[in-house]
């Protein structure tokens, strides 16, 4: 079978019309497909844009919450440091007062011991002086 369009002119015209119709339908399908792809792309781009905005809002919210939490932690830390500083200052003050009181007690105790020792020495010297004088009186008599 040879080319049919070469023998019959009406067949050739029918074939050309059919090819034209097919080309038109292909263009129509191509345009429809392109339009559909464009619509889907635009829809997806809008959706992606919305998701990005939502994500950025969420990130911003999380960042703000984190900053608030950090600020609270810092404030609590500062209060704790102040409280501990006051407590240690009070402990140091109490320790110094206690040490000063113990020093005074020790000083008074040492002074009393020195006074007692001096008294004992004087009494001893007086007894020794009396014994000496008694012995001297015996010898002279």
Secondary-structure map:
Layout: H1 9-140
Low-pLDDT stretches are: none
Q: Tell me the strand percentage band.
A: under 5%
Global structural class: mainly alpha
Q: Helices and strands, in N-to-C order? A: H
Could you estimate the helical fraction of the residues in percent?
over 70%
* Quaternary structure type: single chain
| Mean pLDDT score | 91
Number of strands: 0
Shape: rod-shaped
- The Rg value, from CA coordinates, equals 59 Å
Query: Major sheet: size, sense and barrel closure?
Result: none
Instruction: Give me the number of helical elements.
Output: 1
Distance between the termini: 187 Å
What this model shows, in words?
The longest helix has 132 residues, at 9-140. Helices cover 94% and strands 0% of the residues. The mean pLDDT is 91. It starts with 8 loop residues before the first helix and ends with a helix. It has 141 residues and is an all-alpha fold. It has one helix at 9-140.
Keywords:
single chain; 141 residues; mainly alpha
Give a summary of the structure in a few sentences:
The chain is an all-alpha fold.
């Amino acid at each position: 079978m040879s080319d049919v369009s070469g023998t019959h002119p009406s067949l050739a015209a029918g074939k050309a019309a059919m090819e034209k119709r097919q080309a038109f339908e292909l263009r129509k399908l191509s345009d429809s497909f392109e339009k559909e792809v464009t619509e889907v792309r635009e829809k997806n781009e809008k959706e992606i844009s919305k998701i990005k905005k939502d994500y950025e809002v969420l990130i911003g919210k999380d960042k703000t919450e984190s900053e608030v939490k950090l600020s609270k932690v810092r404030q609590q830390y500062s209060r704790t440091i102040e409280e501990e500083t006051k407590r240690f200052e009070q402990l140091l003050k109490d320790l110094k007062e206690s040490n000063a009181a113990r020093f005074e007690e020790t000083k008074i105790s040492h002074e009393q011991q020195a006074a007692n020792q001096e008294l004992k020495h004087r009494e001893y010297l007086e007894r020794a002086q009396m014994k000496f004088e008694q012995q001297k009186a015996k010898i002279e008599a």
